[in-house]
Amino acid sequence: MYVWPSAVVLAQYLWFHRGSLQGKAVLEIGAGVSLPGIIAAKCGAEVILSDSSEWPHCLDICRQSCQMNDLPRVHVVGLTWGHVSQDLLALPPQDIILASDVFFEPEDFEDILTTVYFLMLRNPKVQLWSTYQVRSADWSVEALLYKWDMKCVHIPLKSFGADKDIAESALPGNHTIEMLVISFAKDSFGITSKAY
Ligand SMILES: C[S@@+](CC[C@H](N)C(=O)[O-])C[C@H]1O[C@@H](n2cnc3c(N)ncnc32)[C@H](O)[C@@H]1O
């Protein structure tokens, strides 16, 4: 399976913030090869990897990544975006959700945010750290963020050393990658603050 340029950029963001990951509950959604989740686990986070419950081969790839990287404590669960399943209900509250290159089909955006919203209800301080490859200037998740009471901050790649080749991978190369940190717009007093 292919490691997407977005995954390398998100992995670099995790590496940049490695000092704050120890003991954090981290869930990767649409994980595939799971590079960001693997880096988080190597940096001491309690990681759960997930991919569609309808595609067992993708879940096998997550498990293989754990085996190859000697991470037997990392759990792998089937989570299909937009489905409130037993596995989603059973998840402990998360601190960080990782999502690399999951915003590629506009018809999936709302399902992804539904799943994220559910996790925000469990822990209103959870942050979604997401990278995506810009494939069309017309696609934007920001109107949906407003609808789901979420806010986002764009993180310049340069601020975490991802604007040039990362770890000799020749990535992100000439792909345009964006990095977003998405969180609940409401604070603990129920006051909404939007930041776009
Ligand atoms: C473009 S790949 C990105 C994989 C990985 N995050 C990366 O960056 O290398 C999209 C991933 O989303 C998963 N996916 C697609 N539709 C999904 C859905 N409805 N629910 C959960 N996962 C889904 C795919 O199985 C695949 O692993």
TrEMBL record:
Documented EC number(s): 2.1.1.319
Gene Ontology MF terms: protein-arginine omega-N asymmetric methyltransferase activity
Subcellular location per the Swiss-Prot or TrEMBL entry: Cytoplasm; Nucleus
Catalytic activity: L-arginyl-[protein] + 2 S-adenosyl-L-methionine = N(omega),N(omega)-dimethyl-L-arginyl-[protein] + 2 S-adenosyl-L-homocysteine + 2 H(+)
A cellular-component GO term for this protein: cytoplasm
Enzyme class: transferase
Keyword tags: Chromatin regulator, Cytoplasm, Developmental protein, Methyltransferase, Nucleus, S-adenosyl-L-methionine, Transferase
GO annotation terms (biological process): chromatin organization; methylation; regulation of gene expression
Chief localization: cytoplasm
Quaternary context: Interacts with HSPA5, HSP90B1, TUBULIN, UGGT1 and UGGT2. Interacts with TET3. Interacts with STPG4.
Function: Histone methyltransferase that dimethylates histone H3 at 'Arg-17', forming asymmetric dimethylarginine (H3R17me2a), leading to activate transcription via chromatin remodeling. Maternal factor involved in epigenetic chromatin reprogramming of the paternal genome in the zygote: mediates H3R17me2a, promoting histone H3.3 incorporation in the male pronucleus, leading to TET3 recruitment and subsequent DNA demethylation.
PANTHER family per UniProt: HEPATOCELLULAR CARCINOMA-ASSOCIATED ANTIGEN, HISTONE-ARGININE METHYLTRANSFERASE METTL23
Similarity comment: Belongs to the methyltransferase superfamily. METTL23 family.
Protein name: Histone-arginine methyltransferase METTL23
